[in-house]
Amino acid sequence: MNVKCFSVCLFQYMSGFGNEFSSEDSRCPGSLPEGQNNPQVCPYGLYAEQLSGSAFTCPRPANKRSWLYRILPSVKHKPFTAVPCGNLTENWNEVEPDPNQLRWLPFIVPKSTEKKVDFVAGLHTVCGAGDAKTRNGIAIHVYTCNTSMVDRCFNNSDGDFLIVPQQGEILITTEFGKMMVEPNEICVIQQGMRFSVDVFGETRGYILEVYGAHFELPDLGPIGANGLANPRDFLCPVAWYEDRTVATGYTVINKYQGKLFACQQDFSPFNVVAWHGNYTPYKYNLNNFMVINCVAFDHADPSIFTVLTAKSTRPGVAIADFVIFPPRWGVADRTFRPPYYHRNCMSEFMGLIKGHYEAKEEGFQPGGASLHSIMTPHGPDADCFEKNSVAELQPERVAEGTMAFMFESSFSMAVTKWGLQTCQRVDKSYYQCWEPLRSHFNPNWKPKKSPTMAFLKITTSNPILV
């Protein structure tokens, strides 16, 4: 497949989801070997190294790997040793289970004048389930940082990171090249890929981590060939390398079995001159999502807003879905248009990138979050219900200037001690938004008579007249 290459804001990208890409740094033309993956001697004296994202024996459509041609191989490093994990954890038994509706006020970003915190030091696990050792589970983190990573990179051996910036753009340098990711964009750094994060001030965002599966585009079924997140709108970086010796030591931080380890080497890991394959980091602009919506009455399920999914072994059941609620038109007749009251066999973690969420305009704020656990009831607050029950149903723009999202999972997620206690951001008044709900029940209610109802009554009681 030929892949189009183009620039966005001075950064170059290749277009497409899961394509077979080929890229080489323009400073070293011909650095990509021709006709084979592992020549006896690589061009420019490079080392060939394969990064496998799937078992060798996976069926071809599911097989993921890339070949990297680098100045020095990644195996050249000192031994890994354990380092403090901070607020990053996979311990789901720190506190007792809590089935209540949970909402967090915006997570606090430390001031750079008080303490320098980079991306790795600013990782905080909010909730999750499963186990990285058995390669089955998820974790949800937030990152709050104020300084760039200097001579250190991060490598997640446990799973994929889906990163959702909320405040501040982030420049991500990977072994495959560079990506600038802004709020209202997302990026995915897949398992095993080394990356470093530069920030430009106080920065905050959300991360969905999945173990044992990779994100893919959802099946479209009756929607047809087009719609939702279109493959061509996903962008992959082009090759970029630095040949840099770090005499003071370069630190590689490895997340392995839920713990952090660090090793030292004397060169930059971003020394890949050329690469090819289908296992890459990528980014996506949420503005490009092609929204499907109801145009008659009632609601379609929120699954129509799925951007990416990580499938489980059960057909139709996801380890995790990434769902957004973008600006769109609301035109449904005879319908309570905001989200309906609901109890779900899935866990729903929501965040807000910007604006106001339509079902809860107060309390749910950008940079905050909510968790509605399995079978915990939730829905519009009392004010939203009262207002929309009597609203005149005209075509209207919904969620204009906003972007809310949901991490939905079939796992029953446990909240960490940091999430429930240490962060001190839990909104303990959340349940009160439903307290004003009152009964509208009227046992004397009768349906309004109309020509249609009269016709139905006649045809029902006198079948011979039909």
CATH architecture tag of the largest domain: Sandwich
Q: What is the average per-residue confidence, as pLDDT, rounded to a whole number?
A: 93
User: What can be said about the biggest beta sheet?
Assistant: 10 strands, antiparallel
Shape: globular
Rg over CA atoms, rounded to whole Å, is: 25 Å
Low-confidence spans: 462-466
Output the structural class: mainly beta
Strands, total number = 29
Number of H/I helices: 3
* Secondary structure: helix percent: under 10%
Question: How would you name the oligomeric state of the polypeptide chains in this document?
Answer: single chain
**Distance separating the two termini:** 61 Å
The figure for the number of domains is: 2
CATH topology name of the largest domain, in short, is Jelly Rolls
Classified by CATH, the class of the largest domain is Mainly Beta
Strand sequence of the main sheet, in spatial order?
1-2-17-21-14-11-16-9-8-29
The CATH fourth-level homologous superfamily of the largest domain: Jelly Rolls
Strand content: 35-45%
